[in-house]
Design goal:
The complex is a heterodimer. Chain A has a single domain, classed as Udp-n-acetylmuramoylalanyl-d-glutamate--2,6- Diaminopimelate Ligase, Chain: A, domain 1, CATH 3.40.1390. Chain A has seven helices and five strands; from the N terminus they run αββααβαβαβαα. A five-stranded mixed sheet of chain A has the order 1-5-4-3-2, with helices on both faces. The two termini of chain A are 23 Å apart. Chain B is α+β, with helices and mostly antiparallel strands. In chain B, 34% of the residues lie in helices and 24% in strands. In chain B, strands 1-2-3-5-4 form a five-stranded antiparallel sheet, with helices on one face. In chain B, β4 and β5 form a beta hairpin. Chain B starts with a strand and ends in a 13-residue tail after the last strand. Classes of the chains: A alpha/beta, B alpha+beta. At the A-B interface, α2 and α4 of A face α1, α2 and α5 of B. The structure holds adenosine-5'-triphosphate and magnesium ion. The site of magnesium ion has 5 residues of chain B, from α2. The site of adenosine-5'-triphosphate has 22 residues of chain B, from α2 and α5.
Chain lengths: 129, 145
């Protein structure tokens, strides 16, 4: 799904500048509030998926960005109306991650994405099998 | 390369792993190899930030392996075998608010690394992890190898 369609679907806004080399397309999404859990689960994910993947989280910190960076995910979707600090936005520009914010709850945002065809980690496993 | 890691400085945690990632990429190492190392370094770095009084990291990149050693000045891990279990955590409310405390860091470090040495006393903790580089881990062969 094109990132502009995601913005419309979630009634969301983008916090930072256009990231020049990002693909701006979200085909996979992963939800997490505990970073080590995400790193444990997603570490074997093939790298080509990362660029088309988004991390959906309520954690508006540098560490959410670091986690996405390690996993090669290019987009973070913050839910529940949380706004990142300017220092977090600056870091996103530096490492090339697109930050999106929606005021929807985690459940609703995820449900809408899923209905819109954005795939889950289970799909990654099925595709690899 | 040496790095200083400050206690409770969560905003800057991830700097060591981010720089490590950059160095490894520059050497032409594959994304999957780089990811493996970066996860180990990140988890170890965060542990020093949230569980210790502060410490250092020393990164050593050789042609056939990458090794990184973390040393901190206490208070140490009470029981290493318990700490190694998935889900065990003594993370503070501050650390949990910042997205840590799943108790998955040490088990994940063990799973991504090829060798892991962990020793701890009240005076501090030493963690050394090593990743062997195989030929297929190079995406592009470095020119001046
Ligand atoms: N450098 C350290 N100094 C003191 N205690 C440590 C250190 N590293 C780990 N520990 C202890 O080992 C426990 C388990 O560590 P582990 O990294 O597996 O989980 P965590 O850091 O609590 O949570 P997570 O890594 O999932 O965010 C910690 O909760 C802490 O009690
Ligand atoms: Mg940890």
């Amino acid at each position: 799904m094109d990132i502009n369609d995601v913005l419309k679907l979630l009634d969301a806004k983008q916090f930072n500048q256009e990231c020049p080399h990002c693909v701006r397309e979200i085909n996979y999404a992963f939800v997490c509030d505990l970073m080590s859990d995400a790193l444990m689960l997603l570490k074997k994910m093939p790298s080509h998926i990362g660029a088309h993947g988004a991390l959906v989280t309520g954690l508006v910190t540098n560490q959410a960005l670091r986690t996405a960076e390690i996993l090669d995910l290019e987009t973070i979707i913050f839910v529940r109306g949380k706004t990142p600090a300017q220092s977090v936005i600056d870091l996103a520009d530096e490492i090339g991650i697109t930050l999106i914010g929606s005021s929807l709850t985690m459940y609703r945002a995820s449900g809408l994405l899923f209905k819109g065809g954005v795939k889950s980690y289970e799909s990654v496993l099925e595709e690899e099998a | 390369m040496d790095f200083q890691i400050e206690r409770n400085d969560i905003a800057n945690a991830g700097t060591v792993s981010s720089l490590t990632k950059r160095h490894l990429k520059k050497r032409g190492l594959s994304r999957s190899f780089v990811k493996r190392v970066t996860i180990g370094v990140y988890e170890a770095e965060i542990n020093v930030v949230i569980h210790s009084y502060g410490g250092t990291a020393n990164l050593n990149i050789e042609n056939d392996y990458v090794e990184i050693e973390f040393k901190d000045v206490g208070p140490g891990i009470e029981c290493i075998s318990t700490a190694m279990q998935e889900g065990f955590s003594t993370a503070s409310p501050y650390a949990i608010e910042n997205g840590f405390g799943a108790g998955m860091g040490l088990p994940n470090i063990k799973s991504v690394s090829d060798e892991m040495y962990l020793d701890s006393s009240e005076d501090g903790t030493t963690l050394r992890i090593r990743f062997y580089i195989k030929d297929e881990d190079y995406e592009n062969k470095p020119i001046n190898k």
